[in-house]
């Protein structure tokens, strides 16, 4: 896009949801100023899924501000043609004049939309570009048939813009460097509740028309919409949950009072919450990631509701994004750690304030364990292990969603906090950093310069140049973090995990198993049990007699625990070809529709002699999976079957030949992701 040539003041969306056609009709109004006189064209990020119908130009009087048309009133102003039938175009004469436009290929995740502008355009003169379009089969827009929801009654749709998908939702400057306010008018079928990452201002029930506005500037990827059979319940003075009716009691019970506690803790650390409301919507299992920090309205996959500790951490992480990521945003996807690393640090400060240091250290140990697992898989010289990753033109930034962004970024921020000697003092710095840069986008140098200015004594000591720990090396060296936090405060929780793991790898087995069976893991925290199972996974394949003893000791108990625990045990079953527990794998996959609980198992099944079992289960369950997930699993099942061979549609029996296909390692839009990246990242954007 040509974002560097313009200032985007405001965008307005008029949307009509057409679930039967799986189509969205849109009318987009961009208010802009050219930064230099007579720009020849406006270039926007778009996508082949967008079908452009028209482009028009309208001058805006200098005195008119975005607020003057942020809330369109039905029946005022010139009317657009009937695609869609609303919102009514804001403002008065002069009328719009048509513009020429063309859509050109750019890369596999988007196109460029070039709109020719009038030649006499002055610098800094406000003008509007009005685009009318429809969007079909867009990567950002997920249409669900009723049977893919919990209620099985009404269609459902949600959008997911991170990192560069929203160009298929509406033409835009699809970069985190550009922020603007926005407003929206959405028409939906009657009986369907519409929510957006904004404040709802009005709703005309008999017409199914919703009005929204976002008063603070946000990047394009944080514009989000969800619509379906959703009901609300208040859980605090500024928070409510939205969920399908059958899920609402569970969601309410799990979060009532807690979100306000987390928000208040975050405010004590980093300053006032800026977004008004903090609501949460629970989405069906087809939601492709765990959670997304859309302003005012966090999106969370409903599957996580059964795993209490993961739910707590994921919501607190999204709360932290309200300051780090949403208010202060990384200006480029090459420095995504500025959002994820800082949000992870803030998340752990909030959990320490709320639940104590021991729990925080346990969760940190669990994640750092996963980071080193991913490092062993990728190799220490992998370029994606840098905090400042260099993206070649056309490379999808979504491929950078990995643990280094979160955990190596966290370790660097933690290192900075240790340099000043006092976490509370570092909290004061972060509070000042947010106040200085809120509603803007920054680069790493902004953070580091602010840090050294806030702590002049550290600047005098040249802490940025300490041998082996140079700031530049933190940013650009491959490999593990240069320093890791002291987690000794969590030893009361991590030491039993290590002791139990050592027992199961000790000799003689019968004596070790007897000692291990005396340890009651049913009283452990979820993160303790998950860490223990991850250690066993790291050691797989295990001796068959060890797996037999593990199954005898734990299989029935683990089968009664939450999905985060069960999937880890079932991966141990699969990686060790333990056939007596294979029926549990089948039952788990028959009950799961979520990417996070299916892909890891299918990838493990397809790396060895159980591929035919995977095919059998898949063909029995594929009708309950979202088409995107179904396609990903088909790609996994096709590995090793030859370049033109698709999985057979006929069920087959267990006993396929073992293959050695290596899984993809990064999270992308089309390629299947590795079990390790999905299981360990547990992606909360």
UniProtKB/TrEMBL annotation:
The keyword Cell cycle does not apply. It comes from Octodon degus. GO terms for molecular function: metalloaminopeptidase activity; zinc ion binding. GO terms for biological process: proteolysis. Zn(2+) binds at residues 317, 321, 340. Keywords: Aminopeptidase, Hydrolase, Metal-binding, Metalloprotease, Protease, Zinc. CDD domains: M1_LTA4H (cd09599). Belongs to the peptidase M1 family. Binds 1 zinc ion per subunit. PANTHER family: AMINOPEPTIDASE RNPEPL1, LEUKOTRIENE A-4 HYDROLASE. Residues 640-669 are annotated as: Disordered. Residues 492-637 form the Peptidase M1 leukotriene A4 hydrolase/aminopeptidase C-terminal domain. This is Aminopeptidase RNPEPL1. InterPro entries: Aminopeptidase_N-like_N, Aminopeptidase_N-like_N_sf, ARM-type_fold, LTA4H_cat, M1_LTA-4_hydro/amino_C_sf, M1_LTA4H, Peptidase_M1, Peptidase_M1_C. The active site is at 318 (proton acceptor), 406 (proton donor). Its cofactor is Zn(2+).
